[in-house]
Amino acid sequence: MNTPSIPSAEGHASFEIPGLDEPSKTWYKIFGSLDDPGRPLITLHGGPGLNSAYLEILGDLVSPGKTNAVIVYDQIGNGNSTHFRERMGDTSFFSIQLFIDELENLIKKLKIEEYDLLGHSWGGMLAASYAIRQPSGLKHLVLMSSASSKEVSSAEQRRLKASLPKPVLEVLERNEKAGTTNSLEYQEAMGVFYRTHLCRVYPMPEPVVQGFKVIATDPTVTMTM
Fold this sequence. Notes:
The protein is of the alpha/beta class and 225 residues long. 36% of the residues lie in helices and 16% in strands.
């Protein structure tokens, strides 16, 4: 993970969501210091529904006192941030706008004026949706393994799924049709898909495994979005 000599600090930023009586909280971790020279790099994890642990390796980019700080955070509903299990299926609540508002809130709470933004997978889609608004503080945008079109991405995922061994494909399609995607056999079949097309490192790095455990513990955001 990150080099031991790199200082890090973590905390929670309060995030007020319209219609809720109490503010929620966004968990974040900063590698380096926001007082260091250079713009901080804010990272957006994938999913939707993962946590940011697998992006902490980007903390290795930090050279204390010399280069930009790196910020990772768990998007609302995920990881160490506030969860909303009661909002399962509520697409009016879990929207791209919610996550954009959260990002803007975090930037404000950390008192960041200029920054670079990196989004991975779904995080890249979120980053692009935010960047087209041309926020004044954003200076560089990095999209990593992301998609510019939901339709094209979905079609490609269907093509990749169809290339799986027939028994695995049958398990996936049967459970998706029945709405039993939380079943053990479905999760095991998805494991084959992930090892084939998502992460070919075997065994998977622990932070990646942790991300799947986060989804399994609370699939609200993943299933809703």
